[in-house]
Automatic annotation (TrEMBL):
Reactions catalysed: L-valine + 2-oxoglutarate = 3-methyl-2-oxobutanoate + L-glutamate; L-leucine + 2-oxoglutarate = 4-methyl-2-oxopentanoate + L-glutamate; L-isoleucine + 2-oxoglutarate = (S)-3-methyl-2-oxopentanoate + L-glutamate
Family: Belongs to the class-IV pyridoxal-phosphate-dependent aminotransferase family.
One GO process term, biological-process aspect: isoleucine biosynthetic process
EC numbers: 2.6.1.42
Family matches, as CDD domains: BCAT_beta_family (cd01557)
Species of the source: Flavobacterium beibuense
Protein name: Branched-chain-amino-acid aminotransferase
Length: 352
């Protein structure tokens, strides 16, 4: 199958002129079209691109009762020649199907995911604005649409892609609290999958953290709460002296595309990177002796999210304010590759 095998029903009008691209709230505005591809009893049907609109679904669909739902988060960028680019989309495609396998859902063919995405982006090209900071956030997802409240995997699924214009935002000062009780993921669980349920599991402890004045939680390993694992829904890096540390990916840690790209870029810059677990005790020690310089989250939405301080056992530790933090240097370098402002020597960017 190629993109000619996609049925296209164009919207009669576009809502693009009613959108204020300067004041976008992340994830609230969607483009004119969406892609839908249904899976019925072992067969993927022909994908359809059609106007963005709500759809009907049986109240007994398994997604509502047993949480068979997975997603991806990617971005499209426009360069100065009006060409649209994706960043390492193969990684998102592979990860999506790993998530599908873990949730006993069917794998999506590359022709549906990739050709479908490219075709949709060609149609929605005007929604990708030029200029650093502007991007089109891409949300591929799959839900179990098969009806019946029997607790077993469904026979019917729906894969979709929706698109939302985004502007880089300043998230304000991010203070975090280190998890001592709650967990995001456990050994043998679904923490390494981009599953909807991993997010709902975080909402309540994150709400408690918000009420205490912290924006995010740094998750620790569920068994001992001694190893630092992720920051909210991002991977996390620690800079102690001039070395960057980040935990190895595992069953509990999502294999982030930003994380691995930052590791490769930092190494090429000659920055010392160690992929190993950092212990809470080490972090406290480093904060106390002044060797802890930076903590930052890494993920597609913000690239890096610098953290200004953290709390552990009711004590707050503030990080130094640096002139030229590594987090922002790496963010700038990665953005330059994504927006085609610097040569992509890694071969990460893919033209739509
Ligand atoms: C999506 C996600 C990340 C970041 O992954 P990217 O591919 O860099 O966007 C990190 N941790 C969790 C839990 C995630 O869901």
């Amino acid at each position: 199958m190629n993109e000619n095998d996609i049925t296209v029903n164009l919207a009669s009008t576009s809502k693009i002129d009613s959108v204020d691209f300067e004041n976008l709230i992340f994830g609230t505005v969607f483009t004119d079209h969406m892609l839908i591809c249904d899976y019925k009893q072992g067969v993927w049907e022909k994908p359809v691109i059609k106007p963005y609109e709500p759809f009907l679904i049986d109240p007994s669909a398994k997604v509502f009762h047993y949480g068979q739902a997975i997603f991806e988060g990617m971005k499209a960028y426009k360069d100065e020649h009006d060409d649209v680019w994706l960043f390492r989309p193969d990684q998102n495609f592979e990860r999506f199907n790993k998530s599908a396998v873990r949730l006993a859902m069917p794998e999506v063919p590359e022709s549906v995911f990739m050709d479908g995405l490219k075709k949709l982006l060609q149609i929605e090209k005007a929604w990708v604005k030029t200029g650093k900071g502007n991007s089109l956030y891409i949300r591929p997802f799959m839900i179990a649409t098969g009806p019946g409240v029997v607790a077993a995997p469904a026979n019917f699924y729906r894969f979709m892609i929706i698109l939302s214009p985004a502007k880089s935002y300043y998230s304000g000062e991010v203070k975090v609290i280190i998890a001592e009780h709650y967990s995001r993921a456990a050994n043998g669980g679904i923490g390494a999958a981009k599953a909807a349920g991993n997010y709902s599991a975080q909402f309540y402890p994150t709400k408690l953290a918000n009420e205490m004045g912290y924006q995010q939680i740094i998750w620790t390993d569920d068994a001992t709460h001694t190893k630092l694992e992720e920051a909210g829904t991002m991977n996390v890096f620690f800079r102690i002296n001039d070395t960057l540390y980040t935990a190895p990916t595992s069953e509990r840690i999502l294999d982030g595309v930003t994380r691995k790209s930052l590791i490769d870029m930092a190494k090429r810059e000659g920055i010392n990177v160690e992929v190993r677990s950092v212990l809470v005790d080490e972090l406290i020690q480093a904060a106390e002796d002044g060797s802890l310089k930076e903590i930052f989250g890494a993920g597609t939405a913000a690239v890096v999210n610098p953290i200004v301080g953290f709390s552990y056992k009711e004590k707050y530790y503030e990080l130094p304010k640096l002139e030229n933090p590594i987090a922002l240097q790496l963010k700038e370098k990665l953005n330059n590759i994504q927006y085609k402002l610097a040569e992509d020597t890694f071969g990460w960017t893919v033209k739509v």
